[in-house]
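Worked Example 4.2. Read the sequence first, then its structure tokens.
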Amino acid sequence: MSSVGSGAGGSGVRGFRRRLHGAYLLYTLALAGFIGAMAAAERFGLGRNLIGLTMLLGTVVLYAAIGLRCRTSDAAEYYVAGRRVPAFYNGMATSADWMSAASFIGLAGTLYLSGYNGLAFVIGWTGGFCLVALLIAPYLRKFGEYTIPDFLGARYGGTLPRLVGIVAAVVVSFVYVVAQIYGVGLIVARFTGFGFEIGIFVGLGGVLVCSFLGGMRAVTWTQVAQCIILVVAYLAPVAWLSLKVSGNPVPQVAMGQVLQAVSEREAQLVADPGEREVMAAYAQRAAVAGAKLLDVPAAMAEDRAAAQRRVERLTEAAAPLAEVQAARRTLAALPRTEDEARRLYGEEQASAEAWSQPLGGMPPHAQAFAANPRGAPASRPGEEHSRRNFLALVFCLMLGTAGLPHILTRFYTTPSVREARRSVGWTLLFICALYLTAPALALLVKHEVFNGLVGTPFDSLPSWIASWSKVDPSLVQVSDVNGDGILQLGELHIGADLVTLAAPEIAGLPYVISAMVAVGGLAAALSTADGLLLTISNALSHDLYYRVIDPKRPSSRRVAVSKVLLLVVALAAAYVASMRIADILFLVAAAFSLAASSFFPALVLGVFWKRANRWGCVGGMLTGLVVTSYYMATTQPWLRGLFGVTQPLEDCLWLGIAPIAAGVFGVPAAFVVMLLLSLATPRPDGASERLVDRIRDPRPGG
């Protein structure tokens, strides 16, 4: 990889690109050989843990080697990779930066659980890049500089817009990076045998070596390598699974056949007597939880007395120590306050009601939205509610894509505006390769679960269920609700973050394929985490420390401060990720809503409306952040508990919109406030207007 880190050198741009092509071709061939060698080792009896450990640590060492080779203290290299990344490679790096743990790990799982509704992510994320190409990327590249707060400070004038931009960049990127580090913990813990918390910090080492030593220069060339890994690791297993299920290795072509088979199996499961027994049992549990909510103090006393009697009974009977300890933990975990108990009983009622529905609460896969518009009149409000949330989520994801600081910063790294536009096209090509495959993966896994797992005796369940449950019990849960000893679909609860990572095991493919998927998921999480941590540390070191606090410091000091801050932020994000506050997809979608409501109005109006001024920018960005954050805090379960929100959830929802799409309220509020404040206060100065003229000038040197 020496040519990658050495720059254009004396042989010029063409020579530099030829060396890049050669280096990454050799890398791809070496990757194929490595996977082949591990497959052969598995056939000769190499243990699963050793396979997983070797493949994961092998790729992390590779990323670290690139990071070491590309280390730098030069400001232009550290912040924007010297502005010499060709469009093709910037497209690969941007797609790796983009295809985070949510895309790689969470997207197929969401489609598995939500069916048609999950396509909102595919539409929103892909469509957002059209906005990036048309409205933002070329103008930021023509502006130059290093960061998004740089643009806000120059366009709107003064320190205040820059400071608000710093706050927004840190908030958005921190929420996003927590999701990536959580994904790293899941993968490392499952495939190496480390504990979840240890897995987080082991994976974090790979992130830090790249971004800490070489900044954007190291991150860029590492992300190109990660793009190759994650595309191969996603497409190859799905093609194999498609061939196994349908006889066709092209999953997009096989989808129609598989969807028909899944729909027929869904009809059988809905009518199955065992499934109906499970639904009735969950309905009874929901009724019990509802009764507890009618008299919370009495329910608390009854639960505590029952738990105490169980501990005493097991102790007197000299039961095994593990059973006694489990009973004591259950007693200790009972709620101690009425508010805590009311929240717990409400959650129990809601989950039991959801699981009492057909297909374990999942909608039929081919059904548009959550209710049938041609069904009974009673179902139509639910369909309208689902349609509204679908459109709101698409809106937030599209505008959030066009406002993510770590993605927009990548367009500073290309040699020209033309290359910036071209790199968006290459980015879309690589992203579509994954996004057009994710719906097929969800269907194929559902086919395997419905036909290969449902109906299995509980004493013959595959080992992957226990293995993943040890990593995180929320990923997969099974319980013999109706007591017949046979696993029904309603007795199996799979988390969205499990589907992609466990797909090869669910389908019975060789374990090396599972490890390859894990390597791809790790690449996706690490590549995005690199970009996000760099965005946060650069915002604090370049925009706050250098631009505001101490502008006279040399660039080497600025880079050193950035590295220290990067380490601090990484450790803080790892700590928050270890708390497991929400699934990956919610955290990522929350970051998109925050980005859409803070950055998108300020960037778009800053380019296309000369009248937009400092006070409009500051007021609009703060309004968007506050409205979106408030809505999430009052409607997302973990945040409601954190802030002590006791008001019923139904009373906190606006128009029935889920917290994942909170930006649908923040974006309009930000636009309105920005427009009104800009019109009510003096015009921006001549420098701001000249900047707008320059970046909108169609001439290459305009």
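Now turn to a second chain, presented in exactly the same format:
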Amino acid sequence: MRKGCVRRRASLAAACLILACLAGATAAAKSPSNDARLAGLAARIDAHLAKPAFADATWGVQVVSLDSGKVLYSHNADKLFVPASTAKLYTAALALDTFGPDYRVPTSLFATAKPGRDGELRGDLILVGYGDPTLGTDKRVSWADTLAIALRKSGVKAVRGSLLGDATWFSAPLYGSGWEAADLQSWFGAPVSALSVDENIVRVEVRPAPQAGNLARIAFDSALAAPEVDNQLRTLRAPAPTDISLFRAPGESVLHAFGSIATNAGTQYYRLAVHDPALIAVEQLRAALERQGVSVQGKSRSLYWPQQDESLRGDRIQRIGDVWSPPLADIVRHGLKVSQNLYMQNLLLMVGAKAAADEREVGEASPAFRSSESRGIQALRSYLRRIGVSLDGVLIEDGPGLSRRNLTSPASLAGLLLHVGDNPGAKAFRLGLPEAGVDGSLTGRMRNSAAQGRIHAKTGSMAFTYALAGYAMTAADERLAFAIMLNNYRRPVDAGRPTAELDAIAIMLAELSEGSQP
């Protein structure tokens, strides 16, 4: 009986196994595998990349699921591309990892002597910047008046010395590696300074003169930031052409204005980089001191690397007060949302300056000079190595991606996104990404498409170079990380906006109704 029972049970088990296999086979026949379902996505993307318009261009794409870890699509993913402003993703992740989202950047006022009983300060005032790129952007509160009030409350009524703006916390030039000279007078190429103010730009208004033949009228939104102007810009009687040229040579302070403006032309607006942000900051402080009844006898001056300020090392140095930046999370958010180059380069140099300060504190400072920028890049490589991103695919040399010498692979950039995608400490990173059709540099893109509300990504664009990298939530509610890059693309005359070509792929990801998980 036992043997027969065993045989019957074995036969029953075998029958159940056969039935299960047959059922599975039937189900598989009715429902294609995940790979088969996702093949449709690959075919759609392949067809898009193969369009004749891209015959001379190069595409790189990597799409990875945060939920399954599976690569859903890959094309030239290990090749190197110019990332443009998507390089800001590396800087943002590094800065948040180094300082934390709640860190606030100080700007400090020091005095080189104690005030006397008569209220006179027989020494200098030193305004020291530590990299805050937001100083002066909050118009509700005057940072300069805050420090001036602190000085007045310390008993100072008059300063016999000078007013110094110290930007030497950054051991680096006022521009990033690989930045082009033609960009340095524009707002997006504003000088990078440890003591920055008003985002280191000045707004310019150009109006025609009331009478033809006279010089145009040029005004600035800040008299303290206004450069010396060589005005050769003529007003011509309408319908003459309006052809305005504004030029300031790199390293020079004179703005040359030439060309013509028609009598019926409206006001023309421009944003230009300032020449000496640290000096503008101390002049704003001087004006605030005057408002508080504190006079300064000496002149204002600025100090940048490779100059050094030995007075800060003196025994009699006195800290008067500090003003603080918004939390680093807010700085990162603004830097990513509107692709603000100054913010991201300052963040990279802050990382480098901190590394140098840490070495000095433990007595391990190297005698060989390394700039704050190069130290920041070294820190970036250490960070990427720690989180498992291949360094073979990351050749970055500045913070905002303004350099054409930057190179990265879609695989490495997607690897970064994959790492921070579920990292609780990287919430500020994710919140800082522009939302398709809603805000930031994606405000006017992918609106009223499947991507709106489902694509959060950083944009990148420069001549012949376009990129988009971030996160997608598919129609199947699967989370994806993606990096899309298009290099060497010369848009045909009859083609649409180049950025729309990248958006088309992002929309495909948002429309994906099948998941990659079994």
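Notes for the reader: Residues 2-30 form the longest helix (29 residues). The longest strand covers residues 228-236.
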